[in-house]
Structures are given as structure tokens and as C-alpha cells.
């Protein structure tokens, strides 16, 4: 049986770091409130003119370096983003050109904060069906470009960045001890559109729009749905929550991360947490956390990981990977 196995990981964060206290100058908010309600302490914002594709290219280069491969050694690029440079072409084809890749194919996936999980499921399907041998899966966002800077309920929560994971087809036994993606569980329910959306777009207003969120309601759905999707993915992989070495969750809110881990019966010593330093980077948050987790020495080859995320749509899902 073919498995999609991680062989490289990398990330990029823009230079500009914005501490919570900076928002106190322009908004009725405080460092204490932001830390207490979200766990966020700081986030990175892209420089003027710095784009999603540029950050994605930097993250992908780091993943290629780790794997010791060149751009033309990969067959496909999948970029998860809701903040592409342009309406079209896709961010992924811009990354393809930026890396100097002259073969294969590239496309974007848009499932907002769950985007990286959806992109991983797509990449896994390409690999196990034999359509691609090596796929670069990237989450990259510039959410700072779609903030309403007068809305304290949203603009203090998000950040910019990119993470990239390179997957390669390798033979496995079909058992849960195999390295690679062991299962995926994808879900969406479009009836919840109004809980989290951007109030502009090409065919409706011909504007970019800004993010709107019913934070409390999204929180409620997250707490309910994330442990469920993670459990389904673990069942499908034939492993138990006790077997999990690391939960690598979407980094939106430390309280959501903690409650999901509690519901799964996994201690916080087995959860990779980066939300304090990155804020919510939407589709970039899981690959950023994977890369930071590897860099910290938390995630090691052979570890069993479960990644879970929820966001606009609503769309949510989980992936079980043996690193
Ligand atoms: O990544 C996609 C998925 N997104 C998420 O997972 C986000 C989910 N939601 C959340 O993380 C949380 O709901 C928030 C962090 C957004 C908000 O936390 P909360 O505990 O749910 O607060 P709340 O929205 O219920 O607001 C509580 C109070 C309100 O004041 P009143 O109505 O009680 O007087 C807000 O107006 O806090 C107020 N508030 C703030 N106060 C200071 C909201 N934002 C701020 C702020 N500073 N930045």
C-alpha cells in the first residue's frame, strides 16, 4: 500500500512582530483581555507589499532544503489559502514559478482555517491514487489584509505566515505502524455561513471585504466538532487517543485547544501550542505548528500526530499522520 509520508517541513514568518499592547493604543482592549480570552500574546504581520505567495515560497524552500530536494523533484503543489495575491491565477502557480519548478501542476484549496487539513487530504488522494509522487502542501495567509481594524472582537486575533509540508509516496504495510497519512476526516455545513465570513468578493461586491465573526458561536461549534472529527480520524486509522504523541491543532484560541484536548483525554503536555506567538494564521497555523514542533524537538520520526481544524463555512476536519 502506498502512503504519503512527510519528508520535509518548513515555515516563514514576516519580520514584523506586533505585541498585544500595540492594540491598546487604538482600541478599547488590553493585553490581559487578549491573553485571557484567546491565549494570544503576539502575532506577525506581513510588510507592505509582502504577499502570500512570497511567504509560501520561503516556507516551501525550507521544506525542500530539509528533504535535500530541488523544485523539479516535486510533482504537485497544493496551497491552502483564503488570502491569495490575486483573484487568479492561483497562489499555487505563483509558488510553482517562484520555486523555479518547470513541470507538474499546482492549484489552491480554499477551506479557510480548515484549509490545510483539506489540502492534506487532497495531496494524500493524489499520492495514493498514483497521480503524483511528491506533493508540496502549503498553508499561507495574509489575514492582516482582511481585518476591520475598528473591530476589537476580530482584529486582535489574526496573524500572517506560511508553513509547508513535503509528502512523498512510500510503500507501507497498510497497518497503523506505517509512516505517513493514516486517515482523513473532512466535514462542512454551509448553513453556518454567517458565523464567519468576509463581507466582500469578486462576484458580489468587487471588493476584498473584511472578516466578520460571531466569535462566541464559532467557539461553541469548535468545542463541539473538533474532538468528534479527531476521534473519527483516529478510529479510521485504527489507533486510540492514548496512542497519540502530539495533537497539532489549528491555533485559534488556547481555550479551544485545551478543551479539545480534554475531551480527547490527551494531556496538554502532548499538544503543540504556538498560538501565543503567531495568533490565528488560518490555513497556515497547522503547518507552522508542525514546523515549530519539529524545530523544538517535540515531534520526532515515528510519532503519531492528529491535526484538527475548524473555520469559515463552517468547514472542519482532522488528519492522522505518523511522522
Ligand atoms: O479560526 C477560525 C475559527 N475561529 C475561532 O475559533 C474563534 C472562536 N472564538 C473565540 O476565540 C472567542 O469567542 C473570542 C476570543 C473571539 C472571544 O472570546 P469570548 O470569551 O467568546 O468573548 P465574547 O465574544 O463573548 O465577548 C465577551 C466580552 C464582550 O463584552 P460584553 O458584551 O460582555 O460587554 C465583548 O464586547 O468581551 C468584549 N470583547 C473585548 N474586550 C476587550 C470582545 N473583544 C474584545 C477585546 N478586548 N479585544
Tell me what the structure shows.
The chain is 30% helix and 26% strand. It contains 8 helices and 13 strands. A 5-stranded mixed β-sheet has the order 1-7-6-4-5, sandwiched between helices. It has a 4-stranded mixed β-sheet with strand order 8-13-12-11, with helices on both faces. Strand 12 (304-311) and strand 13 form a beta hairpin. The longest helix has 23 residues, at 215-237. The two termini are 17 Å apart. Bound molecules: oxa(dethia)-CoA. Oxa(dethia)-CoA (UT7) binds at residues 29, 33-34, 37-38, 113, 152-153, 156, 215-216, 218-219, 222, 252-253, 256, 280, 310-311.
Short note summarizing the structure:
30% of the residues lie in helices and 26% in strands. It has helices at 31-38, 52-67, 91-99, 115-128, 215-237, 254-264, 275-278, 285-295; strands at residues 2-12, 16-19, 42-45, 76-80, 105-109, 134-142, 160-171, 180-188, 196-198, 211-213, 246-249, 304-311, 315-322. The longest helix has 23 residues, at 215-237.
Could you list some keywords that capture this structure?
alpha/beta, 13 strands, Peroxisomal Thiolase, Chain A, domain 1, 323 residues, 8 helices, 2 domains, globular, binds oxa(dethia)-CoA, 30% helix, single chain
